[in-house]
Write a structure and sequence with these properties.
Blueprint lengths: L1 H13 L20 E2 L4 E2 L3 H19 L5 H14 L2 H9 L13 H6 L1
Antiparallel strand pairs: 1-2
Length: 114
């Protein structure tokens, strides 16, 4: 655990970021062409790869404790619906109406799920 925390803190200092793995969303960890663009990490670089792995492992430990951000909940819910389309039908049947408060602040992913 200490090594993971050390790597994550080093990353935050390196990038002058105030976030810690609790504030990093799963979507921030997306990889495309060996790049984690949102965290500005090149996974071909050994140091960046170690940092990425450390942050990912810490995020997974946080998830196992049941700690999720709203963004994580929407992202995971959307993934579940994509993998199990029957879930959407079940919830559409179960909940005839959905009240969305603060519609002006609604993100695209929340409207995709409903």
């Amino acid at each position: 655990m200490y090594l993971l925390e050390k790597e994550a803190k080093a990353f935050c200092r390196k990038n002058s970021k105030k976030f810690y793995p609790y504030n990093i969303k799963f979507s921030d960890l997306a990889i495309e062409n060996n790049q984690c663009r949102l965290l500005n990490l090149d996974l071909c670089n050994a140091e960046d790869k170690t940092i990425y792995k450390s942050i990912f492992q810490m995020k997974m430990m946080i998830l196992k404790r049941g700690i999720l951000s709203y963004s994580d909940i929407f992202m995971l819910g959307n993934e579940c619906i994509k993998k199990i389309p029957e879930l959407k039908n079940y919830f559409n049947y179960r909940f005839k109406y959905v009240f969305m408060d603060e519609v002006q602040d609604t993100k695209k992913i929340s409207t995709e799920i409903t």
